[in-house]
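job 3f2a | input accepted
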Amino acid sequence: MDVNASDFPVVEAQIEVLDVDFDAEEFKVDSISIFENGQNILPISSKPPSINPKAMPLSVVFALDVSSSMNGRRFDILKASTRKIIRKLPLEITEVAIATFNAEVTLNRDFTHNCTTLINFVDRLSGLGGTSFEAAFFTKNTGLIDIAKKGKSDNKLIIFISDGMALVNDKRVAALANSDSIVVNCITIDRPISNQLKYISLETDGNYYSDLSSEEEIDWAFERIYNKSQGNSYGKIRWKSRYSCHPEKSTQLKIGQQTFSFQYQIPGKMVGRIEVSPDQVSFSNDKQAGIAFEPVFIKGHNVDLNITSVESTNPAFFGIKPGTFPLTSKANELNLLELSFLPNDSIQAAAKYTIKSKGCPDVYVNASSQGREKLVLTNPVGGEEYTRGEKVPVTWSGITKSKPVDLFYQIKGDNKWLSIGSATGYEKNWKAVALNDSIRIKGVVSGDITFGNLLTAPVSIDDGSSFQSACYSKSGNEILSLSTDGTLKSWSAKTGKPGNTFEQVFEGDYAYMPGFNRVVDVTSDSIKVYTNRNGLLMKEMPLGEGKNLTSLTHVNNKELYVTLNNFHYLSHAEDSRFIDVTSSPKINYSIARKKSKLHVFKTGTSKKEFSINTGPSFQKSILHRTRSILAVSNTNSTQLYNLKSKSLELNLEGESFYQFSDCPRFVITQDTLNYNIYYLKNGNRVFSFKKQNEFDISPSGLSIAQITSDSLTITDISTREVLYSKPHKDVAQYQFFPESDKFLFLQKDSLVILDLYSKRAADKFFVQSDLIKKIDVSPNESSVLITCDNVIASLELEDLLKTSSLEIKKKLDTDVTPFFNVLSPEPGVAEKITFPKQYLQIPVEDIFSDIINNSGKYPVFIDSIYVESDNSCFSLVSAPGGFAIKAMEKSEVELRFTPLKTGLNTEELVIVSGDKKYICRLEGTGMEKGFDHLSGQINFPAINVFSSGDTIVPLIKNTGTEPLSITGLRINTQHKSNFSIASTANSRNLSPGDTLWVNVSFSPEVRGRQNAFIQLRVDNKDWLKSSNLYGEGIAKRNVIIAGKTMHGITKQPMQSIIEITDLNSGNIVHQKHTNDGGAFAIEANTDLNYSINANLNGYFSSSENVNLTDVQTRDTIWVNLELIPIGQSSAIKLNNVFFETGKAEILDVSKAELQRVVTFLRNRKDLKIEVHGHTDNIGTSESNKVLSRLRAMAVKAYIIRHNISDDRISVKYFGESKPIGDNSTEAGRKANRRVEIVFVE
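job 3f2a | predicted structure (1241 res):
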């Protein structure tokens, strides 16, 4: 059940698929009932789920982590949830394989439909060893990808369940899976999922689920995986909830016969609450004036107001104007509460009012007899002790509740203050940092633009990234952010919600392209163009390469040029051997260059408009991106051509082209000393300035800003009047507004907005020192974008202007707490860990429980664990992130030792806790192994089940100079092995140069691929893996069930409909008409237990049991069915009714057969039946008679429970007295153990 309350009070719930047989009528609004916290709620609208009426076949591979780290509770969850999922699958059409992995991968059971077999394998699983996702996915033949791709179904799934700690080549996994259309779904238990597993899931169109901690949560995840695989969609129900001061809504939703119980939270801003204004009241302390009253306005935000009482902590001075309670009003209506103060003397007084209401938390008003606000930190009070990670409640008073306070901490003896963050509302719970020191806290009432204010801005972006810069899109609807790692993302400028993460790392400057839905990444030599919607790379072009260029866009006041030369239509032009061709996306002209001429064409045609001669001093031609203007730049001259009029508009001698301005009014040239600005319209020069000056022209073209060596100067271009001047050292950033004649610049401690052509004073805002990295003004000039290290905020300019001041606040309202203590309990770390002796280059893994311990009474936090050297013979099997060790507990560490040299190998294991590092010395002795494994992989050819194949292989060779003692040899696997070694003598010796040969057999008892490992021990040391074994047992995955239907009396062939039912699920899996002669042939999956019967009006069919759960080697199974005419008294054997051995308890697989009888009796209310019970001759005659009676009575009881009248069913029992088979054979005795029915009219 997924609930979306973002549009509260309207709530929408997504309802999972209920059942293939659900009634869409149940989804009508009048048929749905909703209760929230016991209150009846009426639904607004509903939409039923879309369910695929026919379940689609699946090939599912369960990939189960059985490493040591999964032992205990995780392993219990893994096994229980896997069993539950397998039982829920429609195995009549779904085949399942089970693979387990630790340091190796084992195919426990190849694809099968047999539920019992699969459950038995899950029950036998145990955990051991390390974890290798690489082995799990990539091992040949038995790796997950190779297993899955041999599934019969086109719909192939891998369900990967692990504690998610190992590493894997995620891109390779995704590529291999996608090449065979395999969907990978990843689930982690008790640990956050890794980015690699997320990538694999998303790239293969799967789902991922992180840090699940119960069987129920994994079951929930599987439901979503399964519904997605079936193409099922969710139903939706919307209702209008009721506001409440308590965010949690306990909800019960009833649809038809199904009831869903769940909880959801009202979004924070929509939770009801009692609001008071002001929440800080100050009385004048004039004793002569007598009692004073101050009004407080109070309302219920979204909820009705019902004030039951008001209490004061200082009732001798502070009270309320007499009135009656409760004080009530409708939601969002103001009411008045008058507080009173009775001066007694001139001593300052204060009190806290508690306002109690029905159904909502208490609210408070602080009152004092002083008028001036003063921040007072009230907690910590000094001397307390907090442990690392514990919440430190920082509280304050003395100011308006809504004012943000920036908080900092300082270590005793250190002058530096470190940021804690910002908060409002008189309280912040701060998580104590990793220190063993005395510290104190300072609070600062926030100014205009502070980190605290940015965090609480209406649009605030904080996703954990370290931001480098951000800007608005040209429409102003989006924000584009660049992180310090080169990640580019887009966000909604209205809400701050994330939009798109670009697929490439950005290496240079970036910008939106005006007029296009594109984003560019600009480096020193190229420009990359991306789509804005999905972040895909569209094109990469070299910058300024060639001599025939197009003005593409402006980034950071610099014009960028490229050659767009993919215009195939010019190939038909007369003498079309051009050096290069370029065109602008915005105008209708193309320029083609030859050695000494430029040819002008209309875009899309091969007809030449006119030509321009170029001389030896020609440098480049530049096509304007929005106007039909071509600039031709030579060494000491520039010409501008009007392409429409085919004329030379401007000829400038002694000046070369620099760029067109972003404002389309100007062209900028350069001579030896200066930049020169000319009007494109008339060619008049309007402004010149020194080339070393940084500059920017306003979008309107009226003014220019220049940064010189000592000042920022803004000048009117046409009049040369200096509009503003400021020393350069005080200016960090500057920007013209996009439309109006305003200018913004940032100083160290202030942000200034100038209105250049009005006489009004500048707007000035206090800025927290070194806070802002980048500023940008929105295209409609309604807001300004502030980029800091960890947050991007969009501030409304109208709101900001209300707080501007001419004088910067030089003094801030601050307060400091006394010193208190933060403790970081230290872990106990073992001084040394020693691995047993190990052969060179052969890894061994072990879990050490005594490396890190906590013997104290507080939790110990471990930030990271790593091996000091990257190229060490020691390594972590898994790399855990931060975790806590509870008091008096230990933490396991899994390590791998792969000796690189003989003798002692050493390394340091580093455990980081806070700012301290603890060292555990790792030791292990490497030995010359003196042997080689000779058969790493032993592959048997595929052979029939129950046959055998063997091979003699060299296993190990003594390459040393001393005798080698083989003290153990075995087959190791997670399941019963079909591989064997002819001799497993406990000990054998190999002389130098000798080779151990072994005879390995493969005798498959089950169908499908199988693997195992040969392990051996040398000199009684740890078991070593010597060889991988792989084989495949051949048996039928499908068989033909064929036969005839005939009249039960005359034995003549009859046409009918054949029905094959899977007894495990009770579902009909095949339905087919016989031919005219009553013959049929149906292909069916093996591994299932079937009931087969015929269906013909007026007849009741015998049934046959075809159990294919055992290995099948036959191609065809023959079955004959009899159709008994209703009214005949012939006995019909119920071949698919089964009982517990020697008992009368009906097994579940019998339900399909008995339900067939029930349905028949419901349709023929005129019929009665006799139920006959029979047994074989095992046991005494009397006991068999009793058993036959009890079994016949059990069948009668089942039918009666399904609403068939008792008087329509009679029972007869015969014990062993009426055999139909030979009791001396098992087949005969099985035939004699039967229940029959006889129809009686």
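job 3f2a | The first strand starts at residue 2 and ends at 4.
job 3f2a | closed
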